Amino acid sequence: MSRQRGRVTLPSEEGFVRETKELMERWGADAIRDSDGTKLDAAVKALPAKIYTAYFPSRGHNEFIEQHREECPQIYLMTEFVLAQSVTLEIELLRTYYREQLDVDYLHDPHRYWQVIDRTTGEVLPPSDWRIRQQDDTVIIDNAVPWHEYTVSFLAYIQWDPVQMYNHITNDWGDKPHEIPFDVKQPHSNAFIYKAMKQWLRDNPEVDVVRFTTLFYQFTLVFNELAKEKFVDWFGYGASVSVAMLEDFSREKGYALTAEDFVDQGYYNSSFRVPSPAYLDYVDFVSRFVAAETKKLVDLVHDSGKEAMMFLGDQWIGTEPYGPYFGSIGFDAVVGSVGDGTTLRMISDIPHVKYTEGRFLPYFFPDVFHEGNDPVVEANRNWLAARRAILRKPIDRMGYGGYPSLAYKFPKFVDYVEQITDEFRDIHDHIGGASPYSGLKVAILNCWGALRTWQAFTVAHSLYSKQAYSYYGILEALSGMSVDVVFLSFDEVLEQGIDPSIDVVINAGDAYTAFSGGEVWKNAQLVERLRRWVYAGGGLIGVGEPSAVQHQGRFFQLADCFGVDKERGFSVSTDKYFNQKAEAHFITADDTAFDFGETTNHVYALYERVEILEYSNGEVHLAANRSGAGRAVYIAGLPYSPGNARLLLRSLYFAAGKEAELKRWYADNVDCAVHAYPERGVYAVVNNTNDPQSTVVYDGEGRTSVVELGPSEIVWKETDGGAAS
To answer: Which residues touch 591 (CB under 8 Å, ≥6 apart)?
Structure first.
């Protein structure tokens, strides 16, 4: 295994010079960074390593923003639903919000920018029907309809940076000042941001890489009255709102946005919601603005002879690494938090940068590094999940964040990181930048398309959600699979059709979400194009409620292709006779245990020809169907597991009609994998578990061999069968 130094970034902090040198040597680090709440000693900055310094253009300057509190970022918020029991109703605006984070905006005319809505009818009340009692932040409705529910959508200022607030609470920072954010859209803040950046660059000549930990707009992160997270949307544009932004948008687009365009009935345009045309316009408008303003900062960094790195995490909103404007910014690198294979691919696939870097878990914070806990457990789980994706599309660098003084107290953790940093460099040495073998090209079809590359089904960064994990597992399986993956929007299919290089299209998600598609499936042209493509030989996979919208006697609008539909209570009087399970099938040949997660209930077969592969509780959970020259597979849910990853792989090859090509660079043990790099003449046999494994390995010509693997071991071989150096 390689013992070379490099490709690793190490966090440091004050008073930690000797230990930093030791960790640099053991982990082979060639870069040192600070973290939120830490600073680097001069002696650390003098070490033979690149110095990354976190920079916060829109926070951490309270002395400035205290003089311009009207330039804090704004956000549209909605009150809880309040029931009227008489014609007069009082609604307290901040009752369920954390008052230290938010302050109601009365500077801009509430009767122009706010909305009071009868949520029983959807009617927007005229301003004459409500008034404000400012001293206790209350709206009074004078002509309410008894037994109707009402909400108030209002503008508020964000007066405590949400991420600093989170870190403050997590680390018990006590009397540490609350950092007040400010908005680059505002005149004083805009001028200050660039003036401060110029001065900072002059004052920090030793810095090699400016790590923009924040940029301008925080993803939507709002806390409740108990200082707990109330609403988190890692893709949310809610905190980019300002009256200035709204007015500029109106002038350019020719129409005005309303409060409801942002609060969205209380869903706040979650990425699970089918995005409205107005919201997509706003995302594009803000992204163009953010790209232009960020480029000015990046140009200043480059003019000073330094590199500019963006952290894909906190105030990243508007940068959109897979959007149309990211390439114009000129970032040298992107770094992001690695939670699993999916989040690693989200980072490693980003275009228009010289290198990518992953911040691995656990973060060196006391919630993990405390007496009685073993941080190696999380580190091992994180590494094995990420490694599957690294072998497909590696990030260029890896690192950690937080307080290394905490991690240093756990010798087994230090030993383990030494092992995996060596393995990371060893992978790079073998791959050498070569592209891996891919047997198929797969497209994920949803409302967002490429803009949300590797970001579908995400609630917050790689965090579990009961309603999403049965779909997120699709991406997690694909992240380490020997297939090429693209993300396709419904608009692209309508405008351009389906690229003939695509073997299989996957549509997955709960009905009426952005990922399944909702009302778009009433568009006859979309259905025609998908059907034509399948009947001509294309492959289709549906998970959960694909192509689902109640329309013309169908719920799954591609039910004829899938061979199944879902009973919604409308046709219970119609008998469903087809329930005979197929005795054997290519898709289930591995005989592994499947997990359909939250599953999808009441799905039934439409035709006798449908190959039912799993039938229980009177419903179909796995089925295959042939439509014309093409094939489709239906799966009730697919959380990630090695067995489910193999189920998906076999389903893809069956749908593509390429069963004979499955066993090229293939391991028959589902806990193992084979990744081949033909340009380099090498392949890796990988044990993805912490237990010893044995597997039959198929090379690119179908020849077999048996490989014995130790716990989490990688064995490198040359394509002629000999061990690789």
So the answer is: none
Instruction: Please identify every stretch of the chain with a pLDDT value under 70, giving residue numbers as ranges.
Output: 1-3, 462, 721-725
The token pair that represents 391 in the structure block? 């072998």
Structure tokens at 221: 């992160």
Is 379 in contact with 360 (CB distance < 8 Å)? yes
3-state secondary structure of 654: helix
User: Which token pair is 331?
Assistant: 């970032």
Distance in angstroms (rounded) separating the CA atoms of residues 138 and 79: 11
User: Model pTM?
Assistant: 0.95
Q: What's residue 174's pLDDT? A: 81
Active-site residue (options: 183, 233, 264, 314): 314
Question: Which regions of the chain carry the CATH code 3.40.50.880?
Answer: 441-661
| Positions of E strands within 419-546 | 441-446, 484-489, 504-509, 539-544
| CATH classification code of 666-718 | 2.60.40.1180
- Predicted confidence at residue 175, as pLDDT, reads 83
* Catalytic residue list contains 161: no
Q: What is the pLDDT of residue 1?
A: 42
CATH number of 73-158+237-270: 3.30.390.50, 3.40.190.10, 2.60.40.10, 3.30.429.10? 2.60.40.10
pLDDT tens readout for residues 299-319: 999 999 999 999 998 899 999
> Does residue 283 sit in helix, strand or coil?
helix
Contact predicate 562/542, CB 8 Å: yes
d(CA 90, CA 82): 9
| Non-local CB neighbours of 266 within 8 Å, separated by 6+ positions | 78, 81, 151
Show the CA angle centred on residue 99, arms to residues 96 and 105, nearest 5°: 100
CA dihedral 92, 315, 288, 513 (to 10 degrees): -60
Just give the CATH number of 8-59+185-227+274-431: 3.20.20.80
The beta strand positions in 101-143, using DSSP E, are 102-104, 115-118, 123-124, 130-133, 138-141
Report the pLDDT value the prediction gives residue 3, as an integer from 0 to 100: 54
Cα gap 507→504, rounded to integer Å: 10
